[in-house]
Design a protein that fits this description.
Calcineurin-like_PHP, 12 strands, globular, cell membrane, alpha/beta, metal-binding, 5-stranded mixed beta sheet
Amino acid sequence: MATITRLPFDGKFADLSDFTAANPAIPERVIGGRKQFRTIWISDIHLGTRGCNTEMLIDFLDHVDSEMIYLVGDIIDGWQLKRKFYWPAAHNDIVWRILKRAKRGARVIYIPGNHDEIFRQFSGLNFGGVEIKRQAIHQTADGRRLLVLHGDEFDAITLSHRWLAHVGDAAYTAVMTLNRWCNKYRRWRGLPYWSLSKHAKQKVKNAVEFICGFEEIVAKEAGARGVDGVIAGHIHTAEMRTIDGIEYYNDGDWVEGCTALVEHYDGRMEILHWADEIAAREPLGPERVEALAAA
């Protein structure tokens, strides 16, 4: 029998079966007129890190409903948790909300990424209504077949130079710390949330080349498998485009971009930029700006 690795945070969490029975620290809001979607894809939440934008994600989960939810990897950051345990109550509240959706009848599929690869050993199992899969094929309402995967399988650094991937992760963590200080200053000036790292990636040539190369490789693999498109995470860059006849989608992240990919009931796909959704819903006064920028 294969050995099952003990989770690094065993003893820190309640059992999954206890989550939905517990009361979250941040109560779920009863909101009329929630946005309704057929399917939602979110990834790269990085629970267990200070970079996780819990405020925006909780707001998102309290304002949307769907028949299906795909968790497209790096939901929990095992790399950071191994270095130093960090798990505030709000991170439990995100897990609670996801499990609550499964209990209410939504189909929840979890595709672990490289940061939460420890869960890959449980592929094919179901925990608390959450199905764990290595990859999945999603059929849209209009009949298209989309390959769903995290995407680290196509990252040469992650595959061939694991030590370099960890170095890059440490550098990224440092940038996100700078990002938090930058947004504290913006909060003091009464300005809305802004992603420093996202801006840097758009300006740095090597980062742009890496993202474009990643998208093309993933689309090529999807074409080789005979599907109509592919949905990935991993690179923290939300995107929708067609590459050599293959539909490429990336749902982004909940560290810097705070985005989700959604499918409407007619099969139409859309990327939601949640900071923009909040801004359209209500004016960003000083108190609201402070809450959203404090992640």
